[in-house]
Design brief:
Shape of chain A: elongated
Helix content of chain B: 25-40%
Radius of gyration of chain B: 17 Å
Order of helices and strands of chain B: EEEHEEHEHHHEHEHEE
CATH topology of chain B: Rossmann fold
Oligomer: heterodimer
Distance between the termini of chain A: 32 Å
Distance between the termini of chain B: 21 Å
CATH superfamily of chain B: P-loop containing nucleotide triphosphate hydrolases
Strand content of chain B: 25-35%
Helix content of chain A: 40-55%
Number of domains of chain B: 1
């Protein structure tokens, strides 16, 4: 076919130029594909972190509203327990009565980050339209501090509190919530029959750090729990350290202001009928529970900080803009080189016009040449994109993701230096391996962009040809 | 074949207006061979461009087979060139990446003939100029004379009514020049073409039936063609 023959010969004649344009487009397309793959990888990593926070299959979470901090100088709420450290030593006070805690270990399980929600609200949420299932839970922190016998005397340092996260899981509905996301690697998970038992499932990382195994004991709020299973959460997650039956957590824990948590939860995990229903479900729950916080996976993303979050921003902002800039440069180079080639072929095109070729036919020939170069650039670019993604996968840099949540507990030390505070914070820093996966959408986008680049370059050349007067073109031959 | 009436062509050169052709009237009969002579820059090529529809006059009419080329829209003018007018250029103007056969075929593409018909015409055209054995050669692999023969074959493959040749021997040596002119003359006679040939060479011009002389954009007819 004459069109193909002419096209092939012409590209062969200016092979160097065609290769340069194709390479330029390839680099731009490769960058787009690699950035898309890295973005997909970062999003997956973030999703892994978030899903371990709230469990796979959880589309919406409801948490109790954060409690209002007490006004300075105000009296503590009724039944509230507080520990004060004075020059006389450490004292625990409740309702105005205080006693020394020197030489004791204070082990409190509490939730001071969220106000409690009535457990009856779980059923109300489950009945909402577009809600497939709902389960309640308690997100708690166990804070332990051991005061030495001679604590409070001049020069004695403040003891260091330790804490770990405890999840009160609904044993009748374990598929929702953080425990549902994990894989049991030893022993067993919690069962419905465990509802009132002092049994626990321990996170694999926490078990390794504390040398715990099935049969070991963990102490929560001064009560011994037997470890019946070890669970491994998805890579990159920030799971609770210990899972106990919800009923036991409600019995042992105290809410903000040291209130009882019997019949209370502070988190509801909700699954929607479909992904498209999530926004509507979020709105319905917010209407049902106006004072509480209703979040979806996308709004939780802001909780994840650290290098993973930085990588997400880097890929999104810098990666995207870099791709755009490189593509613009590639398009510009392609256009300039095509215009230059058209200039060199003015006499040739003038001759073709003299022979009776219409401008449209000549433009089609030039467009065919530039789109062919664009297609070659696309193929090379997609290959480069796969290579870039493979390099990221091979290197698999592990990016720290930090998820911190204050426990809400506060110890005040009153002494000659003034008031000092101890506010234990439960933070999890997890290393998330970054991966990159090339999606079909990224490949299609790359090909489309390359073809657009070819069309753009050819169109500029074509515009030049369309304006060409044959007489002028032929004059340049001499 | 052609009737030119009071044709003027002006070009703008900055602020200056340059008259390339002034008030030119000319009739070219069917089957006539007209040679156009004149010094460089006096309007010979402009006249050829007007005859070929490659340019439009500023004033006047250029009638080709009863149709004023100046009034035709570009698409129609392109079709007239494709079907009826063959061009031969001083510098051959072959497409360097196409073989001799493909260059000849390029003139047939606008006619939308079938592949078989195109092949037949290409073969016949190359045979008529004695280059059937060079069909696959690229222009860079041929001599000047051979390239001009390919250009002639390209012009004739479409079976035009008119052949317009702008200094067809200008880039050739003397012997080759004679060969090319002899070939053109032979084809002119055999195919009953109307031929307008621009040349500096008086010897070549004298072989034509009539000689027109362009001087500062004005045309005059020489009476001493030496041809009855």
């Amino acid at each position: 076919m004459f069109f193909i023959t002419y096209l092939r010969r012409e590209l062969r004649r200016r092979m160097r130029q065609a290769v340069l344009v194709a390479l330029g487009l390839a680099i731009g397309i490769g960058l787009v594909v690699t950035v898309s793959a890295a973005s997909a990888g970062v999003k997956k990593a973030q999703a892994d972190v978030l899903s371990s926070l709230y469990g796979v299959g959880t589309d919406v979470t409801v948490t109790g509203s954060p409690p209002k901090p007490p006004a300075p100088g105000s009296a503590p709420p009724k039944n509230a327990r507080s520990i004060q450290v004075t020059p006389n030593g450490a004292e625990e006070c409740q309702n105005g009565k205080c006693h020394s805690v020197a030489g004791t270990t204070q082990d409190n399980l509490g939730s001071t980050s969220y106000n409690p929600i009535s457990e009856s609200k779980v059923a109300a949420v489950a009945r909402l339209k577009d809600v497939r299932a709902a389960a309640g839970g308690l997100v708690l922190t166990d804070n332990r501090i051991t005061f030495p016998r001679h604590f409070g005397q001049p020069g004695s340092p403040l003891p260091t509190p330790t804490s770990f996260n405890v999840d009160g899981a609904d044993t009748g509905n374990l598929s929702l919530g953080p425990l549902g996301a994990g894989t049991i690697t030893a022993g067993r998970s919690l069962r419905a029959s465990d509802a009132h038992a002092n049994v626990a499932v321990v996170d694999s990382g926490y078990a390794r750090a504390g040398k715990l195994k099935v049969g070991s004991a963990v102490t929560i709020a001064g009560t011994k729990f037997r470890v019946v299973g070890i669970v491994r959460q998805p890579q990159g997650g920030s799971p609770p350290d210990v899972y106990i039956p919800l009923d036991r957590a409600q019995a042992l824990a105290a809410g903000p202001g040291s209130g009882s948590l019997k019949g209370k939860i502070n988190t509801i995990y909700v699954t929607a009928d479909s992904a498209a229903d999530i926004p509507a479900v979020q709105k319905e729950i917010a209407r049902l529970l106006p004072g509480d916080t209703v979040t979806t996976a996308s709004s939780l993303a802001s909780q994840v900080t650290g290098s993973l979050a930085s990588a997400a921003r880097l890929v999104d902002v810098l990666g995207r803009w870099l791709s755009v800039l490189v593509l613009i440069a590639a398009f510009a180079v392609a256009s300039l080189l095509t215009m230059a080639a058209v200039s060199r072929r003015v006499a040739e095109f003038g001759t073709l016009k003299a022979l009776g070729w219409s401008s449209r036919r000549i433009v089609a020939q030039v467009l065919g040449e530039s789109v062919t170069v664009g297609a070659i650039g696309a193929a090379l670019g997609v290959g480069l994109g796969f290579a870039g993604a493979a390099i990221i996968d091979a290197l698999a840099p592990r990016l720290p993701a930090v998820i911190s949540s204050p426990t809400g507990q506060n110890f005040r030390a009153i002494g000659p230096g003034g008031v000092r505070s101890l506010s234990p914070t439960a933070t999890h820093t997890v290393a998330v391996p970054l991966s990159a996966s090339v999606t079909a959408g990224a490949v299609v986008l790359g090909v489309v962009l390359a073809v657009i680049g070819g069309l753009l370059a050819g169109s500029l050349g074509g515009w030049r040809i369309a304006r060409l007067r044959p007489a002028d073109a032929l004059t340049r031959v001499a | 074949m052609y009737t030119l009436s009071r044709v003027t062509k002006l070009y703008q050169n900055g602020r200056r207006t340059v008259p390339a052709v002034r008030d030119l009237s000319l009739v070219i009969a069917d089957g006539e061979w007209l040679a156009v002579q004149g010094r460089t820059g006096h309007g010979k090529s402009t006249l050829l461009n007007l005859l070929g529809g490659l340019d439009r006059p500023t004033e006047g009419t250029v009638e080709f087979a009863g149709t004023d080329l100046a009034q035709l829209r570009e698409a129609r003018l392109t079709r007239v060139r494709a079907q009826s007018i063959g061009f031969i250029f001083q510098t051959f103007n072959l497409v360097p990446t196409l073989s001799a056969a493909e260059n000849v075929e390029s003139a047939l593409i606008p006619l939308r003939l079938g592949a078989a018909e195109r092949h037949r015409r290409v073969t016949a055209a190359l045979e008529s100029v004695g280059l059937a054995d060079r069909a696959r050669h690229l222009p860079g692999e041929m001599s000047g004379g051979q390239q001009q023969r390919v250009a002639i074959a390209r012009a004739l493959a479409k079976q035009p009514r008119v052949l317009l040749a702008d200094e067809p021997t200008g880039n050739l040596d003397e012997d080759t020049r004679d060969d090319i002119i002899a070939l053109l003359e032979k084809l002119w006679r055999e195919r009953d073409l109307t031929m307008v040939l621009v040349t500096h060479d008086s010897a070549i011009a004298r072989r034509a039936e009539r000689i027109a002389v362009m001087s500062k954009g004005r045309l005059s007819i020489r009476q001493d063609t030496g041809r009855p």
